[in-house]
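Checklist before submission:
- one chain only
- standard amino acids only
- sequence pasted in full

Submission:
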Amino acid sequence: MKGWVPVAIAAVMLGLTSLWYIASPWITLYGIKAAVEHRDVEAMIAYVDFDALRENLKEQAHADMDRRAKPAMPVGWSVPDESTRTAAIDRQIDLYVTPETARALFAKSGGSDSSSSESVGSITEMVRDIAISRESFGRFVVGGRSDKTGMGAVFTAHGLSWRLSGIRLPAGAARLGALGFAGL
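Returned file contents:
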């Protein structure tokens, strides 16, 4: 009679793990949607791993710089060397991808109630068009069902919850000008 107890415990653990694996990404996305609808900036920020997000954006910008050919400059013009440009990109990403910047952006975008309902409506439409693809047990990517560019939000497990840890940009979108680093 005691032999069934370990089997029952293992079955319950397997069931709970399966439930977490299937439901937790959707619960996370629902939490983000609810935070946006309620304009709860702190709740939205709690879903972001800013350190990992900064590193992800830096890696994509550096990879794009490596792929691109250096532009030919007219004689007499100087072009910053690659290490200077890389350092400038890193500083800008470190400066702008922060909780403080997110708070400032959301405070600045807090308009009237009519603009709030319009933005919530567009977010609701966007949520209906999402697809989740698993990359591993502790990582999933959210993208549009009809999106063919490969763009997506990358979430990684943090304990039993998930945090945004990267943004997968389409090929060529990590260009410095596309990221807002024009002029470097």
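Reviewer check: Strands lie at 130-136, 139-144, 152-158, 161-168.
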